[in-house]
Amino acid sequence: MAKGQTTVSDFAVAPRRTRSVEQSATPADSGTEPAELPTETTNANQSQEAAPPRPEADTPVNRLIAPTEEARRERATTRAMLREDSRIRLRDLKRARDRESKHYVNCPLDYDTKMRLQKAALENDVKMTVIMKAAIDQFLKDNGY
Fold first, then answer.
1. How far apart are the first and last CA of the chain?
2. Where is 115: in which H helix or E strand?
3. How far apart are CA 145 and CA 133, in angstroms?
4. Per-residue pLDDT for 31 more than 70?
5. pLDDT value of position 130
6. Which residues does the annotated region (Disordered) include (predicted)?
7. In total, how many domains does the chain have?
8. Is residue 20 part of a domain?
9. pLDDT interval class at 25 (50, 70, 90)
10. Is residue 8 part of a domain?
């Protein structure tokens, strides 16, 4: 090795946690098998510490460990599917509400009636459709419909 280069073995490495500490830190994680938990202490050959993690160690034991690319992709796909389902349900709900509440009636009004309706809507701070609906309801009630 060239002079002046630093490697992982040049630094002191803290010993790994014992089995009882990791089990008490993650009591809800029943998916890990006790035999797979690391129990070895720091040994003279620290090159093993710099080795890439095993596939079973890729599953996060706590929130500080980053999940694997596959786990992130799976979680993102699941979230996207849930959002898509929610979006479709909301759209269908809005369409059903519109179908139930909106049955348009197109009626031409003369200019004076339209201006009176517009003025009444502005002064009373209501929509013109609300006034027209109330007027139609009143007319139908008065005539027995």
1. 99
2. helix 111-124
3. 14
4. no
5. 93
6. 1-78
7. 2
8. no
9. low
10. no
Residue 111 and residue 91 in one domain: no
Enumerate the H helices of 4-43 as residue ranges. Answer: 19-25
Sign of the Cα torsion 56, 60, 65, 67 reads positive
Most distant CA pair in the chain, distance: 104
Please choose, from the candidates 97, 13, 3, 88, the residue with its C-alpha nearest in 3D space to the C-alpha of residue 48: 13
Q: Which domain does 96 fall in, by range? A: 68-103
Q: Are residues 99 and 113 in the same domain?
A: no
38 in a domain, yes or no?
Answer: no
For residue 85, give Cα distances in angstroms to 98, 116, 120.
20, 46, 43
Tokens of 131: 């006034």
Structure tokens at 57: 């160690």
Query: What are 54-81's pLDDT values in tens digits?
Result: 555 555 455 667 778 888 999 999 999 9
Residue type, 12: A
Specify the CATH number for the domain of residue 135: 1.10.1220
Each as own residue / partner, the long-range contacts of residues 72-79 (CB below 8 Å, 24 or more positions apart, any chain) are none
How far is Cα 22 from Cα 61, in angstroms, rounded to an integer?
Answer: 9
Q: Is residue 5 part of a domain?
A: no
